[in-house]
Amino acid sequence: MSQPGLYNLEPGARIAQALAAAGGLKDFARKDGIYLLRSSDGTSRVRMTYNDVTARTGRAYSLRLRSGDIVVVE
To answer: Is residue 54 included in any domain, yes or no?
Structure first.
């Protein structure tokens, strides 16, 4: 991400909105290495690609962020 950090997003925000809030992806970011880390339901790690996030279909698009979620881009 261009500007990693903590961001307050609107309730129900998606991964794409989190990436946009952080300034998008840097040139060297792995577009196939995006992860959602969620500890509110145990500990889960969901891997996705940038194409999954921007496709407006599928699981990556339908995931809504929750308080405490972390989005990681390799």
So the answer is: yes
